[in-house]
Amino acid sequence: MKNLNVVFKESENINRLVHLAKTGTETFIYGVSDAQKRHLAYLLSEFSNMRGLYVAWNEMQARQAYADLSYLTGDKVVYLPNREIMLYDVDARSFERTYERIASLVRIRENDYQFIVTSGEALMQFLMPPEDFKRHLITLKPGDTFENLDLEQKLLEMGYERVEKVEGRGQYARRGGILDLYPVNSEMPCRIEFFDIEIDSMRWFSPDSQRSVDPCPVLDVYPAREIVYTKDEIGDISKRIEAALD
Q1: Is 68 within the bounds of a domain?
Q2: Which of 14, 39, 106, 241 is the most buried (most CB within 10 A)?
Q3: Is there a single domain that holds both residue 115 and residue 170?
Q4: At residue 176, what are phi and psi to the nearest 5 degrees?
Q5: Helix 2-9 crosses helix 34-48 at what angle (to 10 degrees)?
Q6: Is there a single domain that holds both residue 48 and residue 105?
Q7: 19 and 50: one domain?
Q8: Claim to verify: residue 140 and residue 193 sit in the same structural domain
Q9: What would the mean pLDDT of 44-63 be, rounded to a whole number?
Q10: Looking at the domain assignment, is residue 71 inside a domain?
Q11: Does 108 share its domain with 208?
């Protein structure tokens, strides 16, 4: 791919497009196939040292664009899927789509991307304001102190589910002085051991074997839902609804 980049970098047309992109000039390009669009988007981002946003017509095309751009850039592509619309019993809902969206938003917030790939529909859906997203972030590390009930209340407000045994993202379990937590933005769950109200140790563990593996020096816990309300905010909303109904 690097050899091809050398060839394309000598192209007068490509260099002209790169110049237009750097100067913020509105540009229309016609007569290119879907595969060519993705390659062209990659070249413009690569040669201009600018991040890219690729918007596809629908989710199927967006996933194909994500696959193509991932091949070209490695793990530097973030895919933001559509929010799932509930037209049936909420008890049957899977939150995997929500977790995928939140994990993508985390990478965007941390500037861990070269490309964002999404669909027009997803782009039109409202997102949590960045300041609220940051406000609901919990950072845990050994030596920190937390009142047990306060930490659990915060996790519940953030959309985490209390279970007997942690097996999937968005879950937590409490057994005495041990808190098992699987953040939605994490590849593995973390086992947090407390001494009274102080975090004594933190280790990643396998959700299958439930055995601890490597130490976890710090854990960022993001919300498990895209809309998060505190108890005070819920109370205020309830009062406003009641007032509107009177």
Answers
A1: yes
A2: 106
A3: no
A4: 60, -120
A5: 80
A6: yes
A7: yes
A8: yes
A9: 93
A10: yes
A11: no
Higher pLDDT, 6 or 113: 113
Handedness of CA 176, 178, 180, 185 (dihedral sign): positive
Instruction: Record the tokens describing residue 9, joined without a space.
Output: 């970098």
Residues 193 and 164 in one domain: yes
Percent of the chain with pLDDT over 90: 59
Overall average pLDDT of the 15-32 stretch: 90
pTM of the model: 0.81
Give yes or no for residue 221 having a pLDDT over 90.
yes
State the average pLDDT over residues 179-188.
94
Specify if 241 maps to a domain: no
- 71 lies in the same domain as 174: no
Residue 229 domain-assigned (yes or no): no
Structural domain boundaries, residue 207: 132-221
Express each pLDDT in 54-107 by its tens digit. 999 999 999 999 999 999 988 899 999 998 776 665 555 678 888 999 999 999
Domain tally, the chain = 2
Distance CA 234, CA 81 (A): 28
CATH of the domain at 108: 3.40.50.300
3-state secondary structure string across the chain: CHHHHHHHHCCHHHHHHHHHHHCCCCCCCCCCCHHHHHHHHHHHHHHHCCCEEEEECCHHHHHHHHHHHHHHHCCCEEEECCCCCCCCCHHHCCCHHHHHHHHHHHHHHCCCCCEEEEEHHHHCCCCCCHHHHHHCCEEECCCCECCHHHHHHHHHHCCCEECCCCCCCCEEEEECCEEEEECCCCCCCEEEEEECCEEEEEEEECCCCCCEEEECCCEEECCCCCCCCCHHHHHHHHHHHHHHHC
Confidence band for 114, pLDDT divided at 50, 70 and 90 = very high
